Amino acid sequence: MARAVTTKTKAINTAIAWTIAILIFFPILWTILTSFKTEGTAIADPPVFLFFDWTLDNYATVQERSNYFRHFMNSVVISVGSTVIGLIIAIPAAWAMAFVPGRQTKNVLMWMLSTKMLPPVGVLVPLYLIFRDWGLLDTRIGLIIVLTLINLPIIVWMLYTYFREIPNDILEAARMDGATLRSEVIYVLLPMAVPGIASTLLLNIILAWNEAFWTLNLTAANAAPLTAFIASYSSPEGLFYAKLSAASTMAIAPILIMGWFSQKQLVRGLTFGAVK
Amino acid sequence: MATQHSRAAARIMIAPSVVLLLAWMLIPLGMTLYFSFLRYNLLMPGNNPFVGFENYAYFVTDPAFQAAIVNTLLLVGGILLITVVGGIGLAVLLDQPMWGTGIVRIMVISPFFVMPTVSALVWKNMFMNPVNGLFAYIADVLGMQPFDFLTQAPLASIIGIVSWQWLPFATLILLTAMQSLDSEQLEAAEMDGASAWSRFYHIKLPHLSRAITVVILIQTIFLLSIFAEILVTTNGGPGTASTNLTYLVYAESLLRFDVGTGSAGGVIAIILANIVAIFLMRMIGKNLDA
Q1: What is the count of structural domains for chain B?
Q2: What is the pLDDT of residues A204-224, one digit of tens each?
Q3: Contacts of residue B132 in chain A, CB cutoff 8 Å?
Q4: Could you name the CATH architecture of A68-270?
Q5: Which one of A6, A91, A125, A205 would you mutate to disrupt binding with B, by most B Cβ within 10 Å of its Cβ?
Q6: pLDDT in tens, A58-96
Q7: Apex B19 CA angle, B18 and B21, nearest 5
Q8: Cα A219 off chain centre by
Q9: ipTM for this prediction
Q10: Contact call for A112 and B21, based on CB within 8 A
Q11: Most distant CA pair in chain B: distance in Å?
């Protein structure tokens, strides 16, 4: 039952909320706008907001000078790769814990979570040395391994909270109707599990895409995903705001859009089901 | 309905995850612990003798360590204060009826999806730069001297940047919790003549307390490990003005190649994080029983 709200109150709320929201969003908006300016316009005094000659040159320049596409593909391969491998490992585990819980299930879940609490810097040295000795430094496969492992607890947990909500009654009903295990899995369980798996996939790609500790420490020119590539703009030469903005816009755009669609899942995934 | 057979199958299904995580945890952790007791520098090849707690003593008595601990606490504390207070305010605001809720929400949560290196560089160059940044322009218009944020107030500037990234997280979680509040309770209070403030203080805030705790604990885990933002803005400087524990360990290990000391620092970082983790795990564990 909605409370009666006067139009005036609603108008005031709207004004305040929009003002704050635009302020919060402004750095992103400014970055996107700057990416379409020339370097001269980007630092114009006074700053120009919308009325400038829009150009796509920066995007072309960024690609030409630094092979941007390569780093973009590194990000795609590493985030999607680590997520898919993580799901393959985690789905059976989460499935078993949700549908055949044993006495140890809760302990196992809590222990998995505790591995996520390990500060990455605590294992930086050995991992760096292992990577160096095994020739994994600056390789995509090395990063895929690390990101799979650091996000595995989150994947298992998220899947578990989704699977646990699938009512057992439906499974039993299917069994009563004479469904075989195979058809039970394919026609009953899988359709109900798909939304949960998709949400987990989405959230985990976002997390892996933005991961910036291991990507910065374990890659160089070759396998650097966008997080590490963008960091190379921290010691600039000459005018570069527009180019930085173009590189940044391309780096955040795909994930921003995915993020907008995964607000709900984000809450569940990052609080380990403690807030839904 | 679990049979002997299905239990065995369940174990096999869980095994890969457990084995991988166990290896991921024990092997590097064991190595860190082992290295922390050796004199081991990558620039000085030798036989890496066992030196007991020498590395710990060296790391802990280094003035940079005290600075790093203070900076870590200021970073975590400052960001928590801003994001939790701001998050509560925004959650209350966004829970009100208004036009365009969807778009407002999207704008507010967006910073969370911006990768750390991008947000740090955008703030550093396009906003905080004392010559070409927007803040310098605004100061100029207002007749003030431009302020060199990252040199004169490096830690506060980083607190600002990271708060911008995490405010959406706090807001989103608190808003989700807020929306599970029974609106009839609020209506009843309103009919009894409770003011907006007392409705907030006596009904909404207690309802949010759980979610607030979760936000604080989870953010603390992540904030203890802030790294990329420091690396691309200040490199921990000037001096050690913006060096946190994570950055200090990184500097010891990968800039000075002192594996022994870096490992000792890593062990200390693990102990600190575990103190927080214990509380967080208790909360989540309770929820699991519910």
Answers
A1: 1
A2: 999 999 999 999 999 988 899
A3: 43, 241
A4: Orthogonal Bundle (1.10)
A5: A125
A6: 999 888 888 889 999 999 999 999 999 999 999 999 988
A7: 65
A8: 19
A9: 0.88
A10: yes
A11: 79
